[in-house]
Amino acid sequence: MRSSFRAVGCIRPTARVATVVGSALAITLFGVAIQVGPANLTTALAAFWDGIAGSPTAIGTILTAATPIFLTGLGATIAFRSGVFDLGQEGQFVIGALAAGIVASVMPGATPVVIFITCLSAAAFGAAWSALVYFGSRALGVTIIVMSLLANYVAEGLAAWASAYPFRDPSGGGLAMTRQARAQLPAVLPGTALNLGVAILIAVVPFWWIWTRSRIGQRQRLLGINRTFAEFAGTAVVRSEALAVMTGGALCGLAGAIQVLGIFGRYIDGSIGGNQSAAWIGVTLAILVARGTWFLLPVALLLASTQIGLLGMQQTVGVSNGMQTLIIGVILCAVALMRRSIGSLAANEGME
Amino acid sequence: MNVLLDVLRSSSVWASVLDGTTSVALVAFGGFLFLKAGVLNLGLEGLMLIGCFTAAAGSDVSSSSAGGLGLALAVGAILGASFCFAVSRYHANALLLGIAFNFVGYGVTTVLEQALFRSTGGIQSSNLAPLPRFHIPLLGGIPWVGNIISGQTVLTYVAWVIAIMMTWWLHHTRGGLTVKVAGIRPDVVRQQGRSLVRVQSLAGLVGGALIGAGGAQLSLGEVTQFQAGMTDGRGFVALAIILLISRRVWSIIPISVAFALLDAVALALQGAGFPPELSHLLPYLALPVVYGIRMLVIWIVPKTGTSVSSPVAMTRQEDSLLPGR
């Protein structure tokens, strides 16, 4: 195993960051240039910058975008670092948002009560969905990577059906969506969509404490580093893995509830999931920040700014909405090339 | 019930089922080759989408289906070989790279579509030439069966031949055995004096071309257009099929037929007033059922030769999305 450690650590952190940022920048410039023509590149970049820093309310827009990215990223982080490669964050996000849309539209009571119950049920549904996928993959003998990717399609289909038939708002016209929520998260910064949901960014503190200071965090970390050893050390592997997956699912579901209660006011089909979903940016966040805790916040803000900037370019100069997906793909390619796989190294050990 | 019986009786439905079978089966064949060579490729969906796009774009530019198919095969082969080369030579993280390919597949096709064709709705010009369909002289005369088997695209017949040839090749030839050994015991390949990088990259080359062909079948066979994200999970279904069959290559065809049939049933149910959002889910909901049956068979008949642990074990301890600590 020694060779794997050497290989993993062989690229300096600064060089790694430079490679990721550089490849993302290169593909952005290239992609924009071939779409709008090199002559319009400066206009496009100005639109990008305008989106991020053009107005005094820009910080609100970025924080609004960063909230679901951070929450889904935190969910993915907990699952990945516990050694479970659950890629169902998008499905959990959608299921949570759907549950929030339904509960918030029928729940009577004062605003804080409605918000609390809605968030709770969204988290519960997200956790239940992820548990279903996790135990399903165990029972059926399929790797959870494939199982969760397929489950995302099922989650989106279920949400599309639920918002189009049983819980449809008849006044929505052609749009499939649930009824108007009876409560909204209060706005924080007037003129932007920034709402109280942003307060959840503080979750990084309890996460840091649990992950690095508590016994349960220690156990989860150990499980992620070496499953076999954790098993020998007496960890109940299935219970710990299920705990990680369900906590992740609950966080993603909560992210869905914040989108519904803070921004849309209801569940609108197609606004949460899909290739452009914030959950996929969250997955990218979890993969980028493989260690440490506090870096989750600045990187989430960075990714959110990129998303907002791209949105500006899309609206101003008509850059394709696929740019965001392409950039994620290129970033992950760069990370994959730098992050040596232990498996192939172990297999080749002593051969080179 | 009547709706379902009508579907099963209609020869035109079965003919379109075979159309749908081919795209999934070709992608599954390609992915299976990756897996046998010891490289799990999670990026089938993205590669297939790139195959769809290159086939449509090539056909649009050259105004011929051969141009489209050729471009899809070439680009698929290059990407497949690069995937294996990066994993084998540079020890890139295969899981991450596969996931990345799915994002790149969607992103690059939508961006290029807008850059090259100035459209956001898809490529749908009159230049697009569909794959030629062969009418078999003698078979085509048989009343019901003839309508189904005759008149398929060239890739459908190719897929059937591949099913037979790949089964034989993997189990009975030196090359096939080398690929399998590369998947199970890479060190043995090296001890034989062969280059593991070369074996895996060649498998990736052929596998990538097959995936490209699957994409071409979708955009030039089933329909004659390209749309963003048109694969709609077919690559993931192919991936699930690969993990299901363990080593019986030929069984990709019947399983793909079953999934294409579910698509046809879903379409018929829609016609009967069933919500399309739910009927669309049929293939995905069928997968757990099929896996459940497989587990049941393994449980009842312990010695079927099926290695149940392999797909699960593959991503357990050896590989990680995060760097090893």
Summarize the structure.
The complex is a heterodimer of chains A (352) and B (325). Chain A is built from 15 helices and no strands.
Keywords:
heterodimer; A: 352 residues; mainly alpha; 15 helices; B: 325 residues; 72% helix
Notes on the protein architecture:
The complex is a heterodimer of chains A (352) and B (325). Chain A is an all-alpha fold and 352 residues long. Chain A is built from 15 helices and no strands. In chain A, helix 8 crosses helix 9. Chain A starts with a helix and ends with a helix. Chain B is mostly helical and 325 residues long. Helix content of chain B is 72%, strand content 1%. Mean pLDDT of chain B is 87; it is low at 305-318. At the A-B interface, helix 1, helix 2, helix 6, helix 7 and helix 14 of A face helix 4, helix 5, helix 9, helix 11 and helix 14 of B.
